[in-house]
């Protein structure tokens, strides 16, 4: 799994940081998404996918790389 974020479209809703706090955080100044781990371990993949689905601005992109843990 490969995760990327586009902070320029982030609206600071914070769903990502609430859903997968080991992978996402929010900038202290403007609340936009901060990616902590662009290649999260398999145990976090479900939460990362959920965070991507919940993002109202579409700032999170989750790419399954074909590794067994991506499913």
TrEMBL record:
An example molecular function term from Gene Ontology annotations: iron ion binding
Cofactor: [3Fe-4S] cluster
Stretches of the chain forming a coiled coil according to its record: none
Keyword Transport in annotation: yes
Domain 4Fe-4S ferredoxin-type: 1-29
Source organism: Streptosporangium becharense
Keyword list, A-Z: 3Fe-4S, Electron transport, Iron, Iron-sulfur, Metal-binding, Transport
Record-given protein name: Ferredoxin
UniProt key word Iron: yes
InterPro entries: 3Fe4S_ferredoxin, 4Fe4S_Fe-S-bd, Fe-S_cluster_ET
Role summary: Ferredoxins are iron-sulfur proteins that transfer electrons in a wide variety of metabolic reactions.
Domain of life: Bacteria
